[in-house]
């Protein structure tokens, strides 16, 4: 089996002072996978179905913090080796979707998306 393809990205997200944000992770293309989410190195959520995960506590100022998402996608769709992940952040200055994609080299291959959101 081929080595996993690693996609490493950094993105910026503007938050509101002293307000939490919500994160949803969608794995596309009919593929399977799961995500681990950390805030400042501390695990705040994980699993295959992350929807509206609250990041931060009420009154916590997230400016200057970082959210790291590590998503492993396994190619289980026989029709395509294309993988994609959409990270949706809500509750900041504006709601934003960040989509990243890569095609694995063989059926059953894996892609690991390491995405860091720098909050300002």
Shape by Cα distribution: elongated
> What Rg is obtained from the alpha carbons, in whole angstroms?
15 Å
Number of beta-strand segments:
9
The helicity comes to under 10%
How large is the share of residues in beta strands?
over 45%
Number of self-contained structural domains: 1
Largest sheet: 5 strands, mixed
Instruction: Determine the number of helices (DSSP H or I, runs of at least 4 residues).
Output: 0
- First-to-last CA distance: 40 Å
Which structural class fits the helix and strand makeup? Answer: mainly beta
Oligomer: single chain
Lateral strand order in the biggest sheet = 1-9-6-3-4
Give me the strand/helix succession.
Answer: EEEEEEEEE
- Sequence stretches where pLDDT stays below 50 over 5 or more residues: none
Average pLDDT confidence is: 96
Can you walk through the features of this model?
The chain has 120 residues and is an all-beta fold. The protein has one domain. The chain has strands at 5-13, 21-27, 32-39, 42-47, 53-55, 66-74, 82-90, 96-103, 110-119. The strands form two sheets. A five-stranded mixed sheet has the order 1-9-6-3-4, with no helix packed on it. A four-stranded antiparallel sheet has the order 5-2-7-8, with no helix packed on it. A hairpin with a 2-residue loop joins strand 3 and strand 4 (42-47). It starts with a strand and ends with a strand. The model has no long low-confidence stretch (mean pLDDT 96).
């Amino acid at each position: 089996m081929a080595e996993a393809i690693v996609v490493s990205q950094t993105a910026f997200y503007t938050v509101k002072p002293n307000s939490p944000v919500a994160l949803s992770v969608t794995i596309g293309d009919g593929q399977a996978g799961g995500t681990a989410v950390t805030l400042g190195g501390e695990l705040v959520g994980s699993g295959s179905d992350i929807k509206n995960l609250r990041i931060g506590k009420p009154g916590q100022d997230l400016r200057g913090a970082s959210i790291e998402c590590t998503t492993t996608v396994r190619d289980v769709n026989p029709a395509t080796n294309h993988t994609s992940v959409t990270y949706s952040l809500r509750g900041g200055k504006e709601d934003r979707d960040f989509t990243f994609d890569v095609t694995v080299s063989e059926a059953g291959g894996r892609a690991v998306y390491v995405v860091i959101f720098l909050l300002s």
